């Protein structure tokens, strides 16, 4: 499946599994297993417990996905901090 066909979901890493897999909790408590995309592995991007990530999920099997982006805590990006 091409990367353009993936549905992007934002979630938080809740468990680090063996073999470079991660348990990610998405919206509404949905849990899925995800692994690092090739570019993240190649650039040695570290994903640890509690990181907020963007996961590309296949519409045919929503229980597995690829971590395509490691983001920052969304609570740090509030409009209150931008006003000062």
Report the portion of residues in β strands.
Answer: 35-45%
Domains (count): 1
Radius of gyration: 14 Å
Annotation, overall tally of beta strands? 5
Q: Mind telling me the CATH superfamily name?
A: Nucleic acid-binding proteins
Indicate the percent of residues in helices.
Answer: 10-25%
User: How many angstroms does the end-to-end distance come to?
Assistant: 45 Å
Task: Give, in order, the helices and strands.
Answer: EEEHEEH
Shape: globular
The largest sheet has its strands arranged as 1-2-3-5-4
Which fold name fills CATH's third level, the topology?
OB fold (Dihydrolipoamide Acetyltransferase, E2P)
Oligomer: single chain
Which structural category fits the helices and strands? mainly beta
Uncertain segments:
none
